[in-house]
Amino acid sequence: MDDNEDASVSTIALDGQGPLYKQIERAVRSEIMSGRWPAGHRIPSEHSLMETLSTTRATVSKALSKLTEAGLLERRRKQGTRVALTTETHAVIGFLDIREEIESRGRTYSYKVLRKRELVAGKSTPFWPAVAAGTPLLMLTAAHCGFGKPEVLEERFINLDAAPDAIKADFETDMPNTWLLARLPCTRLRHTIRAEAAGAAEAERLDVALGSPLLVSLRQTWADDMPVTWVRLIYPADRNEFVGEFNPLQP
């Protein structure tokens, strides 16, 4: 066991609840979701985990197989097991690149956090029913700016059970999408686009008339079965459009 592997094993903590393979699965998932084991990180070998956790190879293998099926791990013969890379997932999902859109118009891009606070999900969270009551959340209000002027508004909630380090992250340096995707594989995404009328706050921040049309992108993402983030992106309708293309002949 090398020093890095030894350090990785030492951070694993079982919770003592339920079958041992499920405890190992939750413990490894926690290391990934916390960012301690980032994408591409080589996790401890089955033998190391077996010795450290005082269990059998079959139990460890079952836990790692479940995480591999969920897309959190990549297991390759003679190369060990690593935390799954997210590059291919990003391309397939097609996250909106607001920075690229603003810069393509010749404007200098910046991301400004307007508000950041911690709260707890109540008994009912209508906008994000995937999170259970009592779940700690981080709420962000931010603006995607061109030449310092807000062009797209962002309202975001992050599940702190999934990404506990988000509470201390500097999102103006490393934007939430980039920060989250570097730590958690997005295995499921729900995307809704709808029209809304600008309220007083949106009208003032986006410099549009009260009641003018807005395009709103609503997104929810999961890492396996864990809800990660809920995002509402608000665009002035007269300056933006969403374009998608389907080409079954293109690889």
Structural description of this entry:
The structure is a single chain. The protein contains 8 helices and 8 strands; from the N terminus they run H-H-H-H-E-E-H-H-E-E-E-H-E-H-E-E. The chain is α+β, with helices and mostly antiparallel strands and 251 residues long. It has 2 domains: 3-83, Winged helix-like DNA-binding domain superfamily/Winged helix DNA-binding domain (Arc Repressor Mutant, subunit A), CATH 1.10.10.10; 91-239, Chorismate lyase-like (Chorismate lyase), CATH 3.40.1410. The protein has a 6-stranded antiparallel β-sheet. A two-stranded antiparallel ribbon has the order 1-2. It is elongated and about 65 Å long. The N and C termini lie far apart (42 Å). InterPro entries: Bact_HTH_transcr_reg (IPR050679), Chorismate_lyase_/UTRA_dom_sf (IPR028978), Tscrpt_reg_HTH_GntR (IPR000524), UTRA (IPR011663), WH-like_DNA-bd_sf (IPR036388), WH_DNA-bd_sf (IPR036390).
